Amino acid sequence: GYGSDVERANAACDELQAQSGSRVFSVGGDLTSDESRDNTIARFFEIVDGELDGRVGAFVHAAGFFHERLLEHHLDGAINNFTVYDAYHSIYPKAFIAITEECLPRMPDGKGKIVAITNPGCNSLQAPRVGYDMPGQGKASMEWLVRLYA
User: How many domains does the chain have?
Assistant: First the structure.
């Protein structure tokens, strides 16, 4: 999955196919709001079911996202709405749950791998800091979810 750079997504697919000999597919879409996230994830699994016999061996959530208004919204008296907060929670924990829940029944014999890439700034390895408050909460939720699913 990728956000908007179709050229880079196609180049990555070509490189992965050339190096691995595997078939590689990409889906563009927006994971930062409910409707677009649900539509994008549905397209992921249309490919899984149609091209990959409905089987998933591994799922890696490695989303990176920088909201254009992140630096204006902090948990220091600068929150006047939840637009930025909701976008981070949509792309991180909500997308992670939605994709994982679709992957689990497609993992043969309940065996598969699930990986979530986060950042030291969202756990106890680093002190909380303004500027990472929105993405940090979303990724910290993903870390908790990984432990739950494990």
Answer: 1
